[in-house]
């Protein structure tokens, strides 16, 4: 029997704002502009929103700050904080709130001015007292340790990781909104400055500004809006650790569980997926998540991503907006993979559009490979 | 909290861990139910959920589980190593390998712990095991 939440809610509006550089804007300014764009897209007004789902590295009580700024008095607020994966997790909580009538119009939203505010990763994170004495660089060293272990166990190469960055750039070149659109070769990545071995500068995501917003409603109302509705078919969450020392096996992420949970709720398998949007904070992420989500066997991710297989024209379209590596990455990236998946399913992606996309998979990552949240979205054809 | 807890002030797992380090000893909580050590020290065994723990000494022997070189300009101190070491008894901790260049640390290297005092705070670091 289908899960109660399968297809029970739908996305009827998306908005982006300030992606790249948003000079002079504060995080909530950017969030509000993205919200404005999403509401316009859905044909709704701010006063229609009665559920807020948000996360922030700037606001200790982001639900309060966001609702106050927007001038709304939500009936339901959720600020689940699992790092960059939060906004993907919010889709599940929004679906629950919409299904049970706790709210009628859910706004999932985020904004950050990380780039123009100086490029430093904003964080309210507590210090990891058993790691800090050894001066790891956060978050890159944790991902570097995972990459080194994957290379050791499975023979994954820097060239294969570089191909992840090259594929992302090729997608970005098809996306007029992407931040980094210059030519990029495997050699460029390999020759870029080493930061924390084996990860070099071009193995790392961008630092940009940006905001995103997604409007969800109960599916019964989904056709009352101007856009083709995109249904939430399943979301699965999983978390196995907080700090990298506690990750049970550095080559396997909790996406192993979140993916299974999302597919189970959706009643679909990987073979049903037309387009894949993964949280690529670093090149190793894409490899790990493709393995853990079942698109290839454990250890074969390096070979899977090599030689253009996830680039335009390859075997599997992955990170079609250009990813965090080449499109946008303002501190937390989860909302942006969600929006790209929805736009692909709506058929709004222009040159980078994947023809006949009916099912999209999104995998959000939070912390240091800590939280994994997988969502599966689909058109009415797969409802 | 009730006054019953007064006697426990200052005896939490982090303080106990540090107190042992200050005596140049590497001790961690061991679960008396599942017999597993854990790191970082807690009041509950993360393997089985038992609260029945006892502090015991570790051998200080371990193996490099993963390693990275953090690149830093020479004038700011130069490159340094950050690694994860899996102790012979099971727990894994972040540390660094001293005594060899950061670039020469390899996954699988056998290492031995020592305790250093860094401005009054003691930390566990490792160096290549002699017999390895």
Account of the protein in words:
The complex is a heterodimer of chains A (383) and B (132). Chain A has 383 residues and is an alpha/beta fold. Chain A folds into 2 domains: 132 residues, 3-Layer(aba) Sandwich (Peroxisomal Thiolase, Chain A, domain 1), CATH 3.40.47; 213 residues, 3-Layer(aba) Sandwich (Peroxisomal Thiolase, Chain A, domain 1). Helix content of chain A is 31%, strand content 19%. In chain A, a hairpin with a 4-residue loop joins strand 10 and strand 11. Chain A is globular. The two termini of chain A are 14 Å apart. Chain B has 132 residues and is mainly beta. Chain B has 2 domains: 57 residues, no CATH class; 73 residues, OB fold (Dihydrolipoamide Acetyltransferase, E2P) (Beta Barrel), CATH 2.40.50.140. In chain B, the strands form 2 sheets. Chain B has a 5-stranded antiparallel sheet. The N terminus of chain B is likely disordered. At the A-B interface, helix 4 and strand 5 of A face strand 3, strand 4 and strand 5 of B.
Describe the secondary structure blueprint for this structure.
The complex is a heterodimer of chains A (383) and B (132).
Chain A: E1 9-20, H1 27-42, E2 51-54, H2 62-70, E3 76-78, H3 86-99, E4 106-112, H4 140-154, H5 158-172, H6 186-191, E5 194-196, E6 199-200, E7 209-218, E8 230-239, H7 255-266, E9 275-278, H8 283-292, H9 301-305, H10 323-326, H11 334-346, E10 359-366, E11 371-378
Parallel strand pairs in A: 2-3, 2-4, 9-10
Antiparallel strand pairs in A: 1-7, 1-8, 4-7, 5-6, 8-11, 10-11
Helix pairs in contact in A: 5-8
Chain B: H1 13-22, E1 27-31, E2 53-57, E3 61-70, E4 80-87, E5 92-95, E6 110-118, E7 121-128
Antiparallel strand pairs in B: 1-2, 3-4, 3-6, 4-5, 6-7
């Amino acid at each position: 029997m289908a899960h109660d939440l399968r297809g029970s809610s739908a996305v009827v509006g998306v908005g982006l704002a300030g992606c790249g550089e948003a000079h002079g804007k504060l995080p909530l300014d950017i969030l509000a502009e993205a919200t404005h764009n999403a509401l316009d897209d859905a044909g709704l007004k701010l006063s229609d929103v009665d559920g807020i789902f948000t996360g922030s590295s700037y606001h200790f009580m982001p639900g309060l700050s966001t609702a106050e700024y927007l001038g709304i008095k939500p009936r339901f607020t959720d600020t689940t904080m699992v790092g960059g994966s939060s906004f993907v997790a919010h889709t599940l909580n929004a679906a629950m709130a919409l299904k049970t009538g706790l709210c009628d119009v859910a706004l999932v939203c985020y904004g950050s001015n990380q780039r123009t505010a100086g490029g430093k990763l904003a964080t309210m994170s507590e210090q990891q007292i058993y790691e800090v004495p050894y001066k790891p660089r956060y978050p890159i060293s944790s991902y570097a340790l995972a990459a080194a272990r994957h290379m050791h166990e499975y023979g994954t190469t820097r060239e294969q990781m570089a191909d992840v960055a090259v594929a992302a750039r090729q997608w970005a070149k098809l996306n007029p909104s992407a931040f980094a659109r210059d030519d990029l070769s495997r050699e460029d990545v390999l020759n870029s400055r080493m930061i924390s071995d084996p990860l070099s500068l071009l193995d790392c995501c961008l630092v940009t500004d940006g905001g995103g917003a997604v409007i969800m409603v109960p599916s019964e109302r989904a056709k009352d809006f101007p856009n083709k509705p995109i249904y939430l078919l399943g979301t699965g969450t999983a978390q196995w650790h907080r700090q990298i020392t506690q990750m049970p096996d550095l080559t396997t992420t909790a996406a192993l569980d979140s993916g299974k949970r999302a597919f189970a709720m959706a009643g679909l398998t990987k073979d049903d997926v037309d387009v894949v949007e993964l949280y690529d904070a670093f090149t190793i992420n894409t490899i790990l998540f493709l393995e853990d989500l079942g698109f290839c066997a454990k250890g074969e991710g390096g070979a899977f991503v090599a030689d253009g297989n996830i680039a335009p024209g390859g075997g599997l379209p992955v990170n079609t907006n250009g990813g965090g590596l080449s499109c946008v990455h303002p501190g937390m990236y989860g909302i942006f993979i969600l929006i790209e998946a929805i736009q692909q399913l709506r058929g709004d992606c222009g040159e980078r559009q994947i023809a006949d996309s009916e099912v999209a998979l999104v995998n959000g990552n939070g912390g240091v490979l800590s939280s994994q949240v997988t969502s599966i979205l689909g058109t009415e054809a797969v409802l | 909290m009730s006054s019953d807890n007064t006697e426990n002030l200052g005896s939490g797992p982090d303080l106990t861990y540090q107190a042992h380090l200050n005596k140049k000893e590497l001790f961690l909580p061991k679960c008396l139910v599942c017999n597993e050590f854990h790191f970082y020290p807690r009041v509950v065994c993360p393997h089985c959920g038992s609260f029945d723990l006892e502090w015991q000494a570790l051998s200080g022997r371990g193996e490099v589980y993963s390693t990275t070189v953090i690149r830093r300009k020479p004038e700011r101190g130069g490159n340094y190593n950050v690694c994860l070491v899996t102790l012979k008894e099971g727990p894994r901790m972040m540390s660094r390998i001293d005594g060899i260049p950061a670039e020469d640390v390899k996954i699988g290297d056998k290492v031995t712990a020592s305790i250093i005092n860094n401005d009054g705070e003691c930390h566990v670091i490792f160096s290549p095991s002699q017999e390895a």
